[in-house]
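Researcher: Please translate sequence to structure tokens.
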Amino acid sequence: MRHGTILSGLAILALSAGTVRADGDATKIRGEYLEARTCSVWVGSCFSNSEANLIGKNAILTWAVKEGSWNGETLDGLKVVALLSAEGTLQTKYEGKIGAVVFVDRTATPKQADALVAMAKELAPDHLGKISKVEKRGIEFARKGLEASVTAGADVKVKTGPICRCDSTECHAYLVYPAFSKATQVECAKAEANQYKGEELGVRWSDPDRPSAMVGTFAR
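Model: Translation complete:
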């Protein structure tokens, strides 16, 4: 009887040590991920090729932490939003130079804000290598299935909803571009709103009603 009690105690300790990913490493942080671009993402290749180097130069990325820590800082419930502006279509040979600004949760401490930026840079290293500005803002995020929304102040807004079945011949909608963020699992969504009206990037956009969004989760 005592042997069984000891084994049960060890099992509880193992579970409390952290969730183990498929690659065998313990997950140190997890949450929701939302991405919207200014080009179609869930389409046929012919359609996406016709947009290359014409649109798709801008994107909004959001990580909403559910629980976990980064660089020793607990980030439960905090959010970070990154905005991208490139010379050409992002994630193509036309991409060119990329500008980026990052908004961190207003409720974050200075150390938590630094950790949020470090997390975003490591999860999206190819596009957040050079950040021109980091600013604290009130960030609101909500998600229920494919319906998600994020605002970062008055000039950043993304709202998503479902589109027809993706990865099917009936819809002819395929994931043309991978998510900017590593360690994600995403589903297809329509960007019902995708807008940035600020001045930090030197460009503004509003690109609604396009199959240009990804909704999912991240875990690292």
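Researcher: Any highlights?
Model: The chain has one domain: 23-219.
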